[in-house]
Amino acid sequence: MLRQFLLLIILFFITGCVQSSPTTSSTTIHRSAQKVGYLVNVRAYPTHTHIGTTALTNFTKNYPFGWKIPSYIERQLDEKLKTFAGVYPVNLRKKGINPNEINNLIKNVNGIWMVARGKSEAYKRVTKQLGLSAIVIVNESAKQAIRDCGMLGCKEFKASGYGVVTRSFLNSNKFYSATAFYANVYKLNPLGSLNSQLTAINESKKMTLVAISKGSIVEENKINFIYPQNFNRWTEQEFKPFRAPLIRYIDEMTQKIIGVVRDN
């Protein structure tokens, strides 16, 4: 009888030890976990920015082609963030966060980073409510694409959005992959901006030349681009070759962004 009683006591202690282990492990993972929010502030459709021989022939046209670039950038950020152990990506668009709330969230005053005026509620929301340790923002905005220099000096021209930039001078045309993106990475605790490590993205002054034509005769090119039948109104098939170099740029851009997050 005594032997059976002692056996029950031993089994009780063994069972208790086995059951307590998962709780300890789970708590450790929770403490080390970091939530990184990301927001993609990019329009749904590509843009053709044309820079003519004179300002009178310049134009910008948006095309309703289903390239799904915003969701592609989101997916790239999400998948690459998930490769880091203990990092949990949070899509801020799905949390109802507006780009205006977190763009320029912090500022540097005399070498000290602080929450910008009027951004206190947004800061509380992303830190207290969502528990984020960092934020990644990708914005689409007008960006320098071309710098032409000649006898009279240099001129700079901007792409209005992602897609294609064309530059015409007399009978010559140049076609560029338009990559009008800017990236921001903010640390939230302690506060800090990592944008100084993103100069390759944010301070780029030129975009990739992918094709050249004399009149409507296009030189051999790597993207299989053919001159459009109506230069002012491209078909989706005519525009399609410019998606591939754009995707390559986005892949490289998101990799650089994630590298900055990883190293900090």
Quick rundown:
This protein has 264 residues and is of the alpha+beta class. The protein has helices at residues 2-32, 69-81, 99-102, 120-129, 199-202, 236-239, 243-263, and strands spanning 34-41, 47-51, 59-62, 87-91, 106-109, 112-115, 132-140, 143-150, 153-159, 163-169, 172-178, 181-188, 191-193, 208-214, 217-218.
Description of the structure:
- By secondary structure, this protein is of the alpha+beta class.
- The chain has one domain (34-263).
- 33% of the residues lie in helices and 33% in strands.
- It is built from 7 helices and 15 strands.
- The protein has helices at residues 2-32, 69-81, 99-102, 120-129, 199-202, 236-239, 243-263, and strands at 34-41, 47-51, 59-62, 87-91, 106-109, 112-115, 132-140, 143-150, 153-159, 163-169, 172-178, 181-188, 191-193, 208-214, 217-218.
- The chain has a 6-stranded mixed sheet. A 5-stranded mixed sheet has the order 4-1-7-12-13, sandwiched between helices.
- Helix 2 runs parallel beside helix 7.
- Mean pLDDT is 90; it is low at 5-32.
Strand portion: 25-35%
The end-to-end distance, rounded to whole angstroms, is 63 Å
The structure class reads alpha+beta
Q: Helicity level, as a percent range?
A: 25-40%
What structural keywords apply?
264 residues; alpha+beta; 5-stranded mixed β-sheet; 7 helices; 15 strands; 33% helix; 33% strand
What does the secondary structure layout of this molecule look like, with pairings?
Blueprint: H1 2-32, E1 34-41, E2 47-51, E3 59-62, H2 69-81, E4 87-91, H3 99-102, E5 106-109, E6 112-115, H4 120-129, E7 132-140, E8 143-150, E9 153-159, E10 163-169, E11 172-178, E12 181-188, E13 191-193, H5 199-202, E14 208-214, E15 217-218, H6 236-239, H7 243-263
Parallel strand pairs: 1-4, 1-7, 2-10
Antiparallel strand pairs: 2-3, 5-6, 7-12, 8-9, 10-11, 11-14, 12-13, 14-15
Helix pairs in contact: 2-7
